[in-house]
Amino acid sequence: MTPNNFAYLVMAVWPFVTFVLLRNYGIGKGALLALLCSYMFLPARMSIEISGLPDLDRFLITILTIIVYMLFSGSLSSLNLLSRVYKVLLFILILSPIFTALSNQERYLFLPGLTLYDGISSSITTLLNFFPFFIGATYFREENQQIYLFKTFAIATFVYAFLALYEIRMSPQLHSMIYGYFPHAWGQQYRDGGFRAVVFMGHGLLVAMFFAVGVAVWTCMFKLKVKVFRFKTGSGLLVVFLTLLLSKSLAALLYGLLAFVAIKFSSPRKIILVSVLITIVFVTYPILSATKIFPHQDLVELAASVSADRAGSLQYRFDNEHILLEHANEKPWFGWGDWGRNRVFDPETGQDISTTDGAWIISIGVSGWIGFLSTFLFMIIPIWLIFSKDKRIKSMPIQSQYLISAHSLVVGLIIMDQMPNASINPLYWCVIGSLAGRVHDLISTKYSISQTR
Question: Is the pLDDT of residue 18 over 50?
């Protein structure tokens, strides 16, 4: 099925909607609302081809509109690139696709070699998708801006819960009804005798992750006694949590439970410690997997105690990770590049015998260890800095401590989900950028504790 005319009309009109949001709400709030709405309501897995530009999907259209608006309003220079380490990482992140292309000019089975144009195009796309990180770091770096970010995200998940509950009951059909096509494999949205909600995000797992983050931000608002709506914050938390429970994603449910228990019952220091442990697991997992130290079989047996189907799915995932990691390590520094060269094919039949799920294995396969580290260190460094600046954090008011620790856990959950899935997107980069900007202010010599009061 192909997108209907309404899908193309929505994509064509969206730049004007984004412009109105930016003009009425300002660059920070307007950009956040545009990114949220594009992820929640625009057609998924659809792009428009324009000669000389990367394929324009809903996020790239939104980001390009934001950049153009900032350029003509003279606001582009206001973006804060933070510390020197982030500038170095950004330089590596943008430059590495070019080295990937230059080191992959030979054919891989039936796939053509890469050209310098491919490398430059990939660099531009990487920078555009990453651009919301700087929006978050610049416009959501103060405490009141953090609270606005969390409240907006909480409202979005509450509203989306009702669309998701409809699809859980009636089947995921809203995308097909409105845009004329289904964005993924239908069979993957049926689990345990019922349906996952897809709505307009493209896959049930993405929707479940959205609600897992929602549980985290709602719990934070509940802990801080911040009113999101007129009714009690606990009611909103309950609606979002029940929707997550019915979303039929064990991983996302565990993320939500972890966030609720940690934020509701733990101290800020312990919440930060949990976030640090998540980053350690994420960074070491590829190495432990390659050396066969990670307890894959134990996890499969644990999953088998819950469901034979889940155990089989997990085993299948681990088997694919193994062959993909072996393939990736043939070009460890800069990876295999795009066009499916990171995948594994049968040399005789040419059949694709691999399935790429986790963002970590996709990143290593496409961009190598250089691209992997330069990408994910943007997420990891802010959490490590919070942990290392313990005295500075403890000198803050207790509410400020809980806010920044909860924010670190939200980013930790996003990182964790890049192991089984590939849910990272420009909206989440904005959330990550907000934490990075907040941490930068905390460790800056110009920072005063009175700013948080």
Answer: yes
DSSP-H helix ranges across 26-142: 27-41, 58-72, 84-102, 116-139
How far apart are the C-alpha atoms of 121 and 292, rounded to whole Å?
Answer: 36
d(CA 403, CA 219) in angstroms, rounded, equals: 11
d(CA 130, CA 416) in angstroms, rounded, equals 19
Question: What is the pLDDT at residue 127?
Answer: 93
R_g over Cα of the chain:
21
Q: What is the C-alpha to C-alpha distance for residues 167 and 181, in angstroms, rounded to an integer? A: 16
Number of domain units in the chain:
3
Give the DSSP H or E segment for 398.
helix 398-417
pTM: 0.94
Q: Please check whether residue 68 is in contact with residue 21, taking contact to mean a CB–CB distance below 8 angstroms.
A: no
User: 183 with 55, same domain?
Assistant: no
Rounded to whole angstroms, the Cα distance separating 142 from 147 reads: 9
Identify whether residues 177 and 152 lie together within a single domain: yes
Structural domain boundaries enclosing 150 = 142-265
At 435, the pLDDT band (50, 70, 90 cuts) reads very high
CA pair distance 380, 266, nearest whole angstrom? 21
Report d(CA 88, CA 253) in Å as an integer: 36
Please identify, among 239, 265, 291, the residue that sits at the C-terminal boundary of a domain. Answer: 265
Let me know whether 105 and 165 are in one domain: no
DSSP state of 337: -
d(CA 177, CA 159): 19
